[in-house]
Amino acid sequence: MKLWFNTLLRLLVGSYFVLTSLYCILAFLPYTYTALIKAPPYAWMPWFAHHQASLYWIAAAAAAICYRENFKVRDKRFFVGVCILTLGGICLSVRPFLPALESNLAAYWWSLAALAWISGLLLWQAIGGASLHDDPAKPALFGYSDGLLTAAAVSLIYFVGAHVNIYRQSGSLIFHYADAELGLWSLLSHFVVAVAALSILNLIRLVAARTPWPGISTRVLTGVAIAIGLWLVLARFLDSAMSFDGWRAQLYAASLAATLTLLGFSLVLPFLNAAPKDSQSPAISVAWRKTAIWSAIVVLTVIALASRSLIGGEDWNGFVNGTWALIFWIALSLCVYRLRPVRATYSPAIVITVLLVSIVAYRGLLATEILWGKPLGSTDDEISLKLEEYGGRDASFQLAHHVLGNGRNEKCGDLCRILREYSNIRDAHIRSGVQLVDDMKPSSGERPNIFIFVIDSMRPDYLGAYNPQHVNYTPNLDSLARDSVVFKNVYTQYAGTSLSEPAIWSGSLLLHAHFPQPFDKVNSLYKLARVDGYQTVLSYDSVLRQLFGASDNLVKLDQDERPWNELEIASTLQQLESTLDGRRDKSQPILFYTQPMNVHQFARNNVPSPSSQHWQSPAGLNGRISYEVHWVDSCLGQFFGYLKQRNLYDNSIIVVTSDHGDATGEFGRVSHSATIWPEIMHVPLIVHLPPQMRSHLVFDENRLSTLTDITPTLYYLLGHKPIRQNSLYGRPLFAQTKEELEQYRHGDIFLASDLHAVYGILTADGRHLYTTYDSPAESYLFDLATDPNARHNVVTPALKQRYDEEIIEHLQTIGDFYGYKPGVGSLLASTEANH
């Protein structure tokens, strides 16, 4: 019991400092600073920051208790350690740094300081408890049979789990020959990883056996190997997920890897060193131990099978699923080796030979995949995409696949450098900006109310207006669509909220910055409201809090301090109705904007659960998302009824859209913000106009359009025209003649990730989608006319060069427009005369 108690204390101490470091590094990186620190999705994050000092004292007390196990209370080393801990607590109590953290170098250095502090504590404890006693006996090696057995079990469990998840989503389970081939390839990948890991551990033991202290050397070399492995994995994650590279990224990855390794050893070694107690009934003791191990295996297996359902949508590009898969690997391996404690004896030559043969065989099969992989695709690219698609469903295979170095990994070079120079720009300051029309004067025509509903993450295929064959749960939006214009070929130009929402308000492409200030210089929609005398009513979400100042004349709804993912449409509409009923001057038109989070993957709200409503989702659609869309539809239906009761419906402009879509696993792709796929970029757009306004306008519901077209459209409808022709600006969706509408047609559409340096081009006819990624460097071209789900890459070197050049040209055009030059470090906007 004492051993477990001390282990929990060590875990508490380590968790506090690691979480502090992670909080600081998230603050340092521009995207996570805006999405997680300034607008935290979970209440515990600001609580952790504001209770930093109090939590430190708890962690310090836990560390002091642990120290007593290594030092005598009267030992001066114990006294020195307690004094250092106390000094740190006094400093934090006087000046805690987490609540005031900014996205700058100070946050980075604090992240390293937290790791250095806990690493020092762990080393101090290790030194205090170190013993020179060592076992000189010849070390026993790990048998390959147990490792292969574990690998087979892990592969099978995750293979079954992936297909169970498919059945839960689609309601059907059809097993093809390609599935069997994917299962076999997953099994082989797990075998190779197991052989490589065991070979490295065995070589370490063989090398350590030649030293004077084989036991200590084994632990040290094993720790170094683990730390190096973690370093490489963490550095790759920071590079690929956050576009964070260079010496700072490498230093942080190495520091975190070393800290986690030290922490892991401090938790595990006491159990390994604990001497077994004598028992009067050794047979009973062995039986209980086996029962406990088998029980642990059953529990681990159940969790692994249900892991994707348990984690749900709250995963960041598969990071949580991948981390759990790694934990499952390690835990199941320990269980197997406890059940089968037989050790082997191999010579160094045999270990090296086994390692080399497995790697060569694996690489040989990979090089000849075009021969055996016919069921997966007819080209290497198609097979690679199919494997990545399966990896999106099977986190364990994806982890093994990536550990073995798979991926397209093109040479990016100067392209990556340019992409990153224009991404996540820090300290962007606007001097002058967007002007959609030449002369902005108050409208002399009608001023209908404007209601804009941007349902975060809602895809068009979850609405009956776009998918009538499969969706029957959105009757209110379908009714709205019947007396509105349903634009069918609309795309967001940004794959995430923190860039997409500002672009809607601006009506223009923006720099890849979170968030340039003062935003008023590019806030075209708010400028329209002020000039035309609208009362602006906002659901004051976490993004709009950054775009508007305290002096702006706004009616702010949803001002409570809830996390952004709890912004719920029913509550917002109740506040809106109260605001509309309570107005003194009801002749003043309203411009209302809301972006509820009901459908978002991280949504947390108090609506009735799907199970409590006995919700049955249509086949092929995500159950949670379809239910949330149904809830949104119901709330909007009630609000539309409210407008009709007060004779406001027919003289209002109503816009229903989404800031982006979401990948929900259908093709092995999940989430948004970091990738560009059709299901992420394609969005719904339903526009209801007053009948007298619509009667003299023309439109093309099939024309390629973007979310940046919404604000220019409102300008045009209120009489502010012509809209200036600029490649950055959106275009009006309506015009008085077909000839005029044709003049506003888009060229190629420039697309961007919200998170890091990922960009794309959608051709002017909407047929071809090209995307390029900075890390790992890879490029894709899809023919959406024949491949609407983007599953067959048709890129060639010539087409890649052409589209890469177009992306660079777009980035430079945006930079020139706002006066941004890479390396300058600030945004110097050009004058309007130069626009």
Structure report:
A hairpin with a 5-residue loop joins β13 (749-752) and β14 (758-762). The longest helix has 32 residues, at 177-208. The strands form 4 sheets. An 8-stranded mixed β-sheet has the order 4-3-5-1-6-9-2-11. Strands 13-14-15-16 form a 4-stranded antiparallel β-sheet. The protein is of the alpha/beta class and 835 residues long. The radius of gyration is 30 Å and the shape is globular. Helix content is 52%, strand content 9%.
| Low-confidence sequence ranges | 824-835
- Estimated helix fraction: 40-55%
- Percent range for β-strand residues: 5-15%
| Main pleated-sheet profile | 8 strands, mixed
Distance between the termini: 73 Å
Shape annotation = globular
Mean pLDDT reading: 87
Count of individual beta strands: 16
What is the rounded Rg?
Answer: 30 Å
> Which class of secondary structure composition applies to the elements?
alpha/beta
Quick summary:
This protein has 835 residues and is an alpha/beta fold. Helix content is 52%, strand content 9%. Strands 4-3-5-1-6-9-2-11 form an 8-stranded mixed β-sheet. A 4-stranded antiparallel β-sheet has the order 13-14-15-16. A two-stranded antiparallel ribbon has the order 7-8.
